[in-house]
Amino acid sequence: MKRILLSVLSAAVMLCLFAGIAAAAPSVSRPASMGGAFVAIADDASLSLYNPAGIPQLKFGMALAPSFQGDLGVLASVIRNLSGVDWANQKMADINTIGTYLNNAVGNDPLLLAPGFYFGLTSRWVGLSTSADAYTDLQIVSGTAASEHVPVGTVSLDAAATVTTGFKIDLDSSLDWISFGVNVNAGYLWEMTTAYDSTTTIFDTELCNGTAVSLDLGILTKIGTSVKVGAVVNDLLWFPITSKRTLYSKDLTTGIVLDEGTIDDSWSALRPVLALDLGVAFAPPDSGMTLAADLHGIEFTRDNKVPFSIRFGFEQVYKPVAFRFGAAFREKTSYYAVDLSGGIGLVLSWFNMDLNLVYTRNEPLNLGFSMGLLF
Predict the structure, then answer these.
(1) CB under 8 Å to 260, separation ≥6 — which residues?
(2) How many domains does the structure of the chain reveal?
(3) Which of 355, 357, 342, 350 has its CA nearest to residue 372?
(4) What's the whole-model pTM score?
(5) pLDDT (tens digit, 9 = 90+) per residue, 325-342?
(6) Residue 362 is part of which domain span?
(7) What is the CATH number of the domain that holds 296?
């Protein structure tokens, strides 16, 4: 029998549990500990995530940054409960068994995990980076009997490889200099959504994946000796390459497979909404202090599809130690989530190492670590 829904689901769950080892989320410790307010700073190897126009500020930079959001105890419990599963031979009929294993691990609590990794290497003229964001949000619900359980929710992997380039123009005015930069992104998105209708007892899965190429445009200028202002237009150009949606479903009462990998040829990935990020930073010379504020997700339309956020960050460097704090207000469906962040860094003449922690009420803690070179 053809391997169908469950083999896809089980592989996806394991992918997101271990993706932090091989792939990465765009969450680098220094900007993350400053609330993500980095558009007008963008002076290290994480700049491709915030403002490509920052690249002329560097001679050479490198960043390596794994991160993890979730409960490590839950992760260990999930791995322990799934360790005896024969993943290579899973079939639709085993969906309840896998659901029961996950129920034993997390009970009625949602399974929320988001591991990741970022790597960037840049010179003054060109930078290369790769990043990915693996995300699992599953709720284990009862199936047709009290002893049966099925996983419902979303599992996704969003990965990208980016080439960054830019240039700077020195000015003889109140503007010290102005720089321009572009990101050329090659992206891949894999997403699986599962649903269970307790009335019809039908378990559905939608599996989507696609690739695309996009371009971001950034600008950064320094005003006087202390102020920088930056702006980025995300997905200014976007070209889809491939897109595919596959449908699976099973009636858990009768055990009949209704869709065994039906391909929807009419589906295509939606173009990302054009959005603007703005930032300002204040860093008095020789003070070691930086204050920053950003607005992210300013849409050029009224579709309101991009979550809007307001971000604030603070950094104080007493070499070789740096202290950082931040806050972000992120738009949700009916309210604003508040992220409180903090971090500490080791700053040497050519090497840096950073730790960060982001706390959001009713969400798992986000932990990050990064290390790199900077000249």
Answers:
(1) 2, 4, 92, 248
(2) 1
(3) 350
(4) 0.86
(5) 999 999 988 889 999 999
(6) 5-374
(7) 2.40.160.60
